[in-house]
Amino acid sequence: MITTGGTFVFIKLIKAETPEYALSDIFEIRNRGNALYDVMKILKRICNII
User: Fold this and answer.
1) Which domain holds residue 24?
2) Strand partners, 2
3) 45 phi and psi angles, rounded to 5 deg
4) Which top-level group of life is the source organism from (predicted)?
């Protein structure tokens, strides 16, 4: 996870012979939709995996 405090981006590593990286959409909590709820859902899923 990369964050500036108000903006969040998640990075995913796909392990393979040649590692690949993927970036999520940008989640901003200052938008009208308040993406903080989406960020919290993702963090909960990560915690359940670890």
Assistant:
1) 2-49
2) 9
3) -65, -40
4) Bacteria
- Which residues does residue 14 pair with via DSSP β-bridges, in sequence order? 20
* Paired residues of 21 in beta bridges: 13
Per-residue model confidence as pLDDT tens digits over 2-50: 988 888 999 999 888 999 999 999 888 777 777 778 888 888 988 887 6
CB 1 within 8 A of CB 10: yes
Q: Which long-range contacts (CB under 8 A, 24 or more apart) does 33-36 make?
A: 35/8
Give the chain's domain count. Answer: 1
